[in-house]
Design goal:
Immunoglobulin-like, hydrolase, about 750 residues, 5-stranded parallel sheet, 4 domains, glycosidase, alpha/beta, Beta-glucosidase
Length: about 750
């Protein structure tokens, strides 16, 4: 299909009609011009395709499919190749089912543990989120199926999500909430971008020209289709003018008429409509011309892949010599989740799984361990009560076995799309159960099934903790593999686990007042806040243990000093010093200059690599850092800027466990604009190269001015005078050195200084 030629043949009504869905999951067809319908489907960790006979609202049962681990889990893998493989499988499934676009990935920043949709989102860190998303997108689109990165922008809560306004300053937007999208969009080029429900600084995402057009298209160069979240359109004509191409789902023709009328009365340029139609039809044509009619949805093969993915995502949080389990040990398996795991969240990403594996099922199939494991229910997910009878049964079993493995976490009613959590606690019945079992058996291990952090008042009383997250339909086998050491755990937390909810930086104002939600914590989200404040956390960002040990050595920089236009190569040798093969996630953080003038986090993740090592093996891991790794967003110039100074490169296993570090001097090649006037501080002028001689006579006048002798104002007179001069506006000289400096002299000084600034650029 020649898209531009087809558009020339379309009527105004047909063009307007193309800009909204025909039902809940399809775009409109124009049969006379050979334009077919296109189907989209919910994702991102499985195919939630509805049968064609299902309802138009999209709430009835979808086809049997494969549920891969959710975003909360896959980000913990820190594994780009793994996400690419998972994306390939999803893309192939879409081809087999005739789905052109799978809706995802979701990259919104985890601002608070309370967000009901955190299980779908990747991380509190934008670099990790955007890198994982890029790999997922590339994998899916390698099969000529589109993705829809979402929800653009600042969609960080479910509470009042269709009316709330995220009030965020530009620097915070750029460094966190836009950055999570930026890298993936620029690098992986998703076919579509989905706008959010909420407003950004008062303007609905669907009609926010600043971000849909000025930033996304003009600045980032995005050329794909922009689609609305389902029901996010508030003013169809304004949305179209702002850059929103496709409205979903169907509006039953109501908004189509609005577009036609707007073009006819001159309030909407038809060229804007034509461009939206072109963006939509480009996606339709791209899929249709690359249909793979031989693709097969092999559910069992993809189930096996889902198990492999889940293995890589599991995080070993704590291990006091209780793991891995040995087949000769007797083990109490406790908790309802051991037989009926919670493996996915609720809402639009809910998959109709073709089969689900539980730990208990897998263990019963294991000849070497099935006669050594015993089960007790411990609690019921149907009611949040402390069931003394069930707890007593679990305690008795724990006393009679070598080790106890307790499966716990959050039930479906605690977290889902559509509502936020009201607290960070687990059900009280589960907490009481864990406390009781841990007292009965010192070798107690807790396996958690949850989509976001939970408070762990019992953490110091158990010997092992495994974070399984919502690990998809094969999570039972993956957990069993980790418990018994068939798989060496290699997941690392993509989010901080605070000790209590009140520690979170957004706690005081997370839901805001009415529809106004202020992001007062600014750039200090997640570990950026906890680490900068040196606040104790339950488990830090990036944390994850292994059944082996790793040592870092021989850190090298390609240069000791660079300009911000240069690239820096960082290498480190990583050695497996244990007796098991395993994978290490090497994390690279950059710390800003200690004497910098900008308020910044103590460090930020700027690189990561996952490397496999046999026992005794050493590999060299290399990172390349560009300007962006050292920069902050400077609103004075509306651009990224590097402050000159000495930066620290930190290499470690978490944001709190840095194993090696070194320093590099980075020189900025761009001077920030400074117009020197009477209010400019002396200290700020002194920082400008070449001002020493110009300022010298004025400094002499100030320091020699008699204010009562060297120590008449105390022993710190000299230090006081130097500090006063640094913080003194130029106009202050007239008052402090009465009669020694005139305003005319200051005007002449300002002229000299501004000319100097002009010459040095």
């Amino acid at each position: 299909m020649d898209v531009k030629k087809v558009i020339q043949q379309m009527t105004l009504e047909e063009k307007a009609g193309i800009c909204s869905g025909s039902d809940f999951w399809h775009t409109k067809a124009v049969e006379r011009l050979g334009i077919p319908q296109m189907m989209v489907s919910d994702g991102p960790h499985g195919l939630r395709k509805q049968d064609l006979e299902s309802d138009h609202l999209g709430i009835n049962e979808s086809i049997k499919a494969v549920c891969f681990p959710a975003g909360c889990a896959t980000a913990a893998s820190f594994d780009r190749d793994l996400l690419y493989s998972m994306g390939q499988a999803l893309g192939n499934e879409c081809q087999a089912e005739g789905v052109a676009v799978i809706l995802g990935p979701a990259v919104n920043i985890k601002r608070s543990p309370l967000c009901g949709r955190n299980f779908e989102y990747y991380s509190e860190d934008p670099y990790l989120a955007t890198e994982i998303a890029a790999s997922h997108i590339k994998g899916v689109q390698s099969k000529n199926v589109g993705t829809s990165i979402k929800h653009f922008l600042a969609n960080n809560q479910e509470h009042r999500r269709m009316s709330s306004s995220s009030e965020v300053d530009e620097r915070t937007l750029r460094e966190l909430y836009l950055a999570a999208f930026e890298g993936a969009i620029k690098e992986a080029k998703p076919w579509t971008v989905m706008c959010a429900y909420n407003r950004i600084n008062g303007v609905y995402a669907a009609e926010n020209k600043t971000y849909l057009t000025d930033v996304l298209r003009d600045e980032w160069g995005y050329e794909g289709m922009i689609i609305s979240d389902w029901g996010a359109v508030n003013n169809r004509v304004a949305d179209l003018a702002a850059g929103l191409d496709l409205e979903m789902p169907s509006s039953s023709g109501l908004t189509d008429k609005m577009i036609v009328e707007a073009v006819q009365n001159g309030t909407l340029d038809e060229a804007v409509l034509d461009k939206a139609v072109e963006n939509i039809l480009n996606v339709v044509e791209r899929f249709e011309s690359n249909r793979d009619t031989e693709a097969v949805f092999d559910r069992d093969a993809d189930h096996a892949l889902a198990r492999k993915v889940a293995q890589e995502c599991i995080v070993l949080l704590k291990n006091e010599d209780v793991l891995p389990l040995k087949t000769e040990e007797s083990v109490a398996i406790i908790g309802e989740f051991a037989k009926a795991p919670r493996y996915q969240g609720g809402g639009s990403s809910h998959i109709n799984s073709h089969k689900v594996e539980s730990v208990w099922e897998i263990l019963m199939e294991c000849d070497s361990c099935k006669d050594k494991v015993y089960f007790a229910q411990g609690y019921s997910t149907k009611e949040d009560i402390i069931d003394e009878k069930k707890i007593a049964q679990a305690v008795e079993l724990a006393k009679q076995t070598d080790k106890a493995v307790l499966f716990a976490g959050l039930p479906d009613s605690y977290e889902s799309e559509g509502f936020d959590r009201s607290h960070m606690k687990m059900p009280e019945g589960q907490n009481a159960l864990i406390e009781a079992v841990a007292e009965a058996n010192p070798n107690t291990i807790v396996v958690l099934h949850n989509g976001s952090p939970v408070e762990m008042p019992w953490a110091d009383k158990v010997s092992g903790i495994i974070e399984a997250y919502l690990g998809g339909q094969a999570i039972g086998g993956a957990v069993a593999d980790v418990l018994y050491g068939k798989v060496n755990p290699s997941g690392h937390l993509a989010e901080s686990f605070p000790i209590k909810l009140e520690d979170n930086p957004s706690y005081l104002y997370y839901h805001g007042e009415g529809d106004r939600v202020e992001y007062r914590e600014g750039v200090f989200a997640g570990y950026r806040y906890y680490d900068t404040k040196k606040m104790e956390v339950r488990f830090p960002f990036g944390h994850g243990l292994s059944y082996t040990a790793f040592v870092y050595s021989n850190v090298k920089l390609s240069e000791d000093s660079i300009r911000d236009t240069d690239s820096l190569e960082v290498s480190v040798d990583v050695t497996n010093t244990g007796d098991r093969a395993g994978k290490e996630v090497v994390q690279l953080y950059v710390a800003p200059p200690k004497d910098g003038r900008i308020i910044r986090p103590v460090h930020e993740l700027k690189g990561f690599e996952k490397v496999f090592l046999e026992p005794g093996e050493t590999k060299t891991v290399t990172f390349t850092l560009s300007k962006r790794a050292f920069a902050y967003y400077e609103t004075k110039i509306n651009d990224w800027h590097v402050e000159t100074g000495k930066y620290t490169i930190e290499l470690g296993q978490s944001s709190r466990k840095i194993l090696a570090e070194c320093e590099v001097q980075v020189e900025s090649t761009r001077r920030l604009p400074l117009n020197i006037n009477l209010d400019t501080l002396f200290g700020d002028i002194q920082k400008i190269p070449g001002t020493e001689k110009i300022l010298e006579p004025f400094i002499k006048i100030f320091t020699e001015f008699d204010m009562g002798g060297d120590d008449k104002l105390g022993s710190s007179t000299k230090e006081m005078m130097e500090s006063m001069l640094r913080d003194l506006p130029l106009r202050g000289l007239v008052s402090f050195v009465q009669g020694k400096v005139s305003y005319q002299q200051l005007y002449d000084l300002m002229e000299q200084l501004n000319y100097l600034l002009f010459k040095i650029g």
